[in-house]
Amino acid sequence: MAKKDKSEYIIQAVSHALDLLEQFHGEVDELGVTDLSKRLKLHKNNVFRLLATLESRGYIEQNRATENYRLGLKSLELGQTFIKQMGLLRQAKPILENQVAACNETSYVAIFKEGHSVYLDVVETDLTVRVVSRVGSRLPAYCTASGKVHLSHMSDEELLEMYPEPNFKTYTPTTIPNRNALIAELKKIAEQGYAVDNEELDSGVRCVAAPIRDYTRRIVGAISISGPSMRMSDERVEKDLIPLAIQSAEDLSARLGYHK
Fold this sequence. Notes:
Layout: H1 12-21, H2 33-40, H3 44-56, E1 60-62, E2 69-71, H4 73-85, H5 88-103, E3 106-113, E4 116-123, E5 138-140, H6 145-151, H7 156-162, H8 179-192, E6 195-198, E7 205-213, E8 219-228, H9 234-255
Antiparallel strand pairs: 1-2, 3-4, 3-8, 4-5, 6-7, 7-8
Helix pairs in contact: 1-3, 2-3, 5-9
């Protein structure tokens, strides 16, 4: 017996209901029955029945003031469930693996927590000389590329609250020494969309990082590439590694629902 194509099992009413939900995207907040009827090329009675069904389950709600319809809380709950199930780490792993395949340098995904960059996952290079794994480490944000990516989107007031003391602990000769110097660099990072750690935490180690955003456009993490300075020349960083980190971060952001 020949196996049926999956398209033969499609239920038309369900398909129409999903088509209706997909009309609420981008700048579209609310739609009326007439608008939906035109968009879906369905009779108003059919559209009203679909709306009534979706409204009864919480996926659509009516704005009583305008009598138009908008997405309901159940749609948000469904989206949040997806984000949790297909979370940052699960989505990040193949991106990190692709990044290492492209540059053969150790790659991380990190989050920001209480003034520190926290490394959640790593894919290491197979080269003998490599950066020691930092997974689980809490490193000062002001002297790591991942940390500076997060800090660059904070206001001056937030930075002042986070760093009430004007001078910082220095780990190497290139560590950013004070709050004023940090703020100046963060403005540059925010404009260019990436950060570089030029041996600021560990001598002999350089790193580049780019921001990861979720469907709310909020920065939820950073992807970074770390390696020994002898392999991370200025030319290689500028020409190869920065574009690669930015593209990886954009790919992961897209998986988390971010749209430019």
